[in-house]
Amino acid sequence: MEYTRQNLSAIFSNFRIEDEVLDIHPFGSGHINDTFKVAAQNKNYLLQRINHSIFKNVEGLTKNLVGITNFLEEKIASEESQMQVLYSYKTNKDKFIHIDQDGKYWRVFDFIENAYSFDRAENADIAFEGGHTFGWFVRMLSDYPAGTLIETIPDFHNADYRIKAFKKSVLDNKAGRAGSVKPIIDELLMRVEEMTLIHQLGKEGKIPVRVTHNDTKINNILFNEGGKGICVIDLDTVMPGYVHFDFGDAIRTFTNTGDEDDDELDKISMDINLYKAFTKGFLSETKNILNPAEIEFLAFSAKYITYEQTIRFLTDFLNGDIYYKVKSPGHNLIRAKAQFALLESMEGQYEEMQRAIRERA
Ligand code: ADP
Ligand code: GN1
Ligand code: MG
């Protein structure tokens, strides 16, 4: 369905909001949901379609979101923190979700004003603040009852599952693309054993299950004009996980000197100074709650999540682009190559990455 101002306004009118819509336009650069900024007479709102083919249990997801948001709101009030939470509006039927005539799922949040998200960290201050903010999130939720959360996407960061799906996409070769990308497939298969480490530590009980965000991309923090993190957004994947998922995905996105889908591979590298700044911020919030094994494998988690992201993009390329939004038929391959270049850069600096963690812990 083409989204028009008219049909988006009609969807928005199902929410219990007394305001007059002036404008609605697409917003942000997420790969999964469809996001729109609604400018209205009194204030702005964020209208979002949840990708229901990826998030199968929207009701459970919404319950997670409301539970987490209320919990954070109380803690923020008691700590007198500057952090904000996402405020969700209810529909005229007293639900947080409106299901439209095509069976699509919609929600509305307050638009957080004077806030910015970035796709890259411009300097070490932003990386430090990012580490601080995602570290804060892990610390805040360290006493959240994890058992009450549903798994919105089962096996989301499960290495065994991701590797199996990758191997299957190579064998099935659904889009007939596997032959053209054999060198990168071989490089990735060579690393399979190494990349199950976090999963293994979890199975052995050496690292605890926590409530984690699981999508700690740089653009899932809103920063204020002074560069302070003021809100952690995109809470759809908040569920039980290991701290490594959050640290790793943040390093993948906060330290890249190129874009996630850069086709100029020589622009891509992991900037060790941004890594150190992020780590400093993250550990300033978390070092008293993490156990020694969690800390020891933080540097590794950056390699793991970057590897996982490489195989996720390549799997989608081989399956014919069925998961991520793409701008062209080769987009997922460009992304996979870019992520692999980032992984190689991390591999080249791994000892220094480990040293930086030891020095700050
Ligand atoms: P996706 O799952 O597609 O990444 P997000 O929830 O992250 O969707 O939203 C996409 C973008 O919209 C974010 O990167 C951010 O720039 C912006 N955004 C999201 N929520 C808000 C909000 N409440 N206020 C202001 N901007 C927001
Ligand atoms: C997706 O929705 P967005 O753009 O924040 C994806 C993440 C990937 C990321 C790669 C639910 O995140 O897992 O790491 O793209 N989200 C989901 O940029 O799959
Ligand atoms: Mg997002």
Characteristic terms for this protein:
alpha+beta, Phosphorylase Kinase, domain 1, 2 domains, binds adenosine-5'-diphosphate, binds 2-acetamido-2-deoxy-1-O-phosphono-alpha-D-glucopyranose, binds magnesium ion
Describe how the helices and strands are arranged.
Elements: H1 5-12, E1 21-26, E2 34-40, E3 44-50, H2 58-79, E4 98-99, E5 105-110, H3 124-140, H4 159-172, H5 182-190, H6 197-203, E6 210-212, E7 221-223, E8 229-232, E9 239-241, H7 243-254, H8 272-286, H9 292-296, H10 298-319, H11 331-348, H12 350-360
Antiparallel strand pairs: 1-2, 2-3, 3-5, 4-5, 6-9, 7-8
Helix pairs in contact: 3-7, 3-8, 4-10, 7-8, 7-10, 8-12, 10-11
Bound molecules: adenosine-5'-diphosphate, 2-acetamido-2-deoxy-1-O-phosphono-alpha-D-glucopyranose and magnesium ion.
The site of 2-acetamido-2-deoxy-1-O-phosphono-alpha-D-glucopyranose has 11 residues, from loops.
Notes on the structure:
The chain has 361 residues and is α+β, with helices and mostly antiparallel strands. The protein contains twelve helices and nine strands. It has helices at 5-12, 58-79, 124-140, 159-172, 182-190, 197-203, 243-254, 272-286, 292-296, 298-319, 331-348, 350-360; strands spanning 21-26, 34-40, 44-50, 98-99, 105-110, 210-212, 221-223, 229-232, 239-241. The strands form three sheets. It has a five-stranded antiparallel sheet, with helices on one face. It has a two-stranded antiparallel ribbon with strand order 6-9. A two-stranded antiparallel sheet has the order 7-8. The model has no long low-confidence stretch (mean pLDDT 97).
